[in-house]
Structure formats: C-alpha cells, structure tokens
Amino acid sequence: MTTYWACLYCVMERGLRGDEIPDLPLAGDTQAIAHHIESVHHIPVVRDGETLEEARARFAKEQPEAADPATCRCPQCVRERAKQNWQ
Ligand SMILES: [Zn+2]
Ligand SMILES: [Zn+2]
Q1: Ligand 1 centroid to residue 8 C-alpha, Å
Q2: pLDDT digits (tens), the chain, 87 positions
Q3: When you count CB atoms within 10 A of the terminal residue's CB, does the N or C end of the chain come out lower?
Q4: pTM of the model
Q5: CA of 17 to the centre of ligand 1 (A)
Q6: Cβ 71 vs Cβ 65: under 8 Å
Q7: Per-residue pLDDT, 18
Q8: Nearest to 46, CA basis, from 38, 72, 75, 9
C-alpha cells in the first residue's frame, strides 16, 4: 500500500482526507513535502543547510505570486479573501 503524506492545509482548506488529495507527496519524502507546502500553500520552508533569510529569498524568487495578497495562496490570505467574498 502506498502511504501519502496528509497535508493539514489541504485538509483544512478543502475538507479532504489525505488520500483524497491528488498529487500529494509520499510520506517521508521531506523534499517533496517542502515543495508542496511552498508551491501549493505559499508558506516558506527552511531547507537543510539554509538560513531563514536564505529560505525567504529563495521563496520570494520561486513563488512571486506569494508577494501579492490578491494571488497569495497561504492560509491567511485564503481566509482573508474568503471573508471579503461574504461582505
Ligand atoms: Zn497541501
Ligand atoms: Zn499570503
């Protein structure tokens, strides 16, 4: 049986169980998990050998949409936009 990593953000935002989410990394694949969190949820992850500043700089370059609250997909921005849709 293949075990996928259960992403808490996917679970919270989409109400899905881990095995219902497509393209999830395999459990234990820390590189793929870090990539998922950064590219899908726009949350910088400090990789092995990186400082916090290096991680922030790399993230800003790789995920330019995260700099704009209108296109950022981090949980906080997603929540803010959802709130505005109800006003
Ligand atoms: Zn996720
Ligand atoms: Zn954001």
Answers
A1: 7
A2: 778 888 888 888 777 665 666 678 888 999 999 999 999 999 999 999 999 999 999 999 999 999 999 999 999 999 999 898 876
A3: N
A4: 0.83
A5: 11
A6: yes
A7: 55
A8: 38
Where residue 15 falls (left for φ over 0; alpha for ψ -120 to 50; beta otherwise) is left
* Contact of 9 with 21, CB cutoff 8 Å: no
Residue 61 Cα, ligand 1 centroid: separation in angstroms?
20
Residues in the chain: 87
Backbone angles phi, psi at 6, to 5 degrees: -90, 110
Tokens 């950064």 appear where? 38
Residue 26 neighbours by CB under 8 Å, 6+ apart: 2, 3, 4, 5, 32
CA pair distance 60, 45, nearest whole angstrom:
12
Distance (Å) from CA 50 to ligand 1 centroid: 22
Q: How far is CA 38 from CA 1, 57, 83, 84, 86, in A?
A: 27, 13, 23, 24, 27
